[in-house]
């Protein structure tokens, strides 16, 4: 994962008539095949950052924009949105707002058709995308009659049909039940592990972040507060409290233990890590008694 596939340099953005900038001097890079999660309190600028990373800013969103975003070697200011969409796809939080047709196959092909991709290529890509998101066999179904998790998977398939190198997911599970959430994260995990796709996701689901994310970028009041591994982010109580971050339960327990003066050999963010660390700590305690 050494190749830089997304480069954000000193980027700032202010919406029309807004009193302040929503994003201020943003700098970071994303490597090919990386799973980056964006976290932060409400109003921190997460959705605005997704628009900037996908090229919606500056092409479809009015406002004051400074800095540079380079997507797969293309500066977003110097290339059109259709050009950028061949490299980066975006899926929003509300699956209902992303449905435009009455059949799943038409829905999955919709974006690619707008890019004027050849029909036979669209068909191949759509078949592959439906297989990846486990929606093969639903081609003739009405997408409005699917479950929330199925609708979101169709939305992901629509983005995948355009064969992006980077996939942005803006709160893709915020309106889903636990089953729908698991369905979406299973798809995202397969895209990363099997296809080496670069994933950028906005989410508050810390348990899932701990399972899948390589790094976490924390936004606070429009600025990058921190960017590091889930372990280091969730271990830093100052960052967690300042940005109002949700933290995995095992990490909450670990932080409390450390603040009580009890040293830990490792900091757990996943359940299985917690079982291992806390079991070892219990054995050490029993041995001293």
User: Could you say what the CATH architecture of the largest domain is?
Assistant: 3-Layer(aba) Sandwich
Distance between the amino and carboxyl termini: 47 Å
Count of all domains: 2
Task: Please trace the helix and strand order, writing H or E for each element.
Answer: EEEHHEEHEHHHEHEHEEHHHH
Proportion in β-strands:
15-25%
Write a concise keyword list for the protein shown above.
6-stranded mixed β-sheet; 2 domains; Rossmann fold; 4-stranded antiparallel β-sheet; globular; single chain; alpha/beta; 289 residues
Describe the model.
- With 289 residues, the protein is α/β, with parallel strands linked by helices.
- It folds into two domains: 4-247, P-loop containing nucleotide triphosphate hydrolases (Rossmann fold, 3-Layer(aba) Sandwich), CATH 3.40.50.300; 248-289, no CATH class.
- It has twelve helices and ten strands.
- The chain has a six-stranded mixed β-sheet with strand order 6-7-8-3-9-10, with helices on both faces. A four-stranded antiparallel β-sheet has the order 2-1-4-5, covered by helices on one side.
- α7 links the parallel β7 (166-170) and β8.
- The chain is globular and about 70 Å long.
- 42% of the residues are buried.
- The model has no long low-confidence stretch (mean pLDDT 91).
């Amino acid at each position: 994962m050494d190749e830089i596939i997304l480069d954000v340099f000193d980027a700032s953005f202010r919406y029309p008539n807004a009193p302040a900038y929503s994003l201020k001097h943003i700098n970071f890079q994303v490597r090919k095949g990386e799973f980056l999660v964006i976290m932060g309190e409400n109003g921190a600028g997460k959705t605005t950052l997704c628009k900037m990373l996908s090229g919606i800013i500056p092409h479809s969103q009015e406002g004051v924009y400074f800095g540079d975003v380079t997507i797969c070697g293309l500066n977003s200011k110097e290339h059109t949105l259709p050009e950028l969409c061949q490299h980066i796809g975006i899926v929003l939080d509300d699956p209902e707002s992303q449905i435009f047709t009455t059949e799943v196959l038409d829905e999955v092909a919709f974006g690619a058709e707008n890019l004027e991709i050849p029909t036979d290529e669209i068909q191949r890509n759509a078949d592959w995308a439906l297989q990846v998101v486990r929606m093969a066999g639903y081609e003739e179904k009405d997408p409005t009659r699917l479950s929330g998790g199925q609708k979101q998977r169709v939305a992901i398939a629509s983005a995948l049909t355009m064969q992006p190198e980077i996939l942005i997911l803006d709160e893709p599970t915020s309106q889903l039940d636990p089953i729908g959430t698991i369905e979406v994260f299973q798809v995202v995990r397969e895209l990363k592990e099997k296809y080496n796709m670069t994933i950028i996701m906005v989410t508050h689901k810390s348990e899932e972040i701990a399972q899948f994310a390589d790094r976490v970028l924390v936004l606070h009041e429009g600025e990058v507060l921190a960017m590091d591994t889930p372990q280091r982010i969730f271990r830093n109580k100052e960052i967690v409290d300042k940005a109002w971050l949700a933290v995995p339960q095992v990490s909450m327990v670990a932080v409390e233990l450390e603040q009580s003066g009890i040293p830990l050999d490792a900091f757990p963010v996943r359940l299985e890590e917690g079982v291992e660390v806390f079991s070892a700590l219990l054995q050490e305690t029993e041995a001293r008694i």
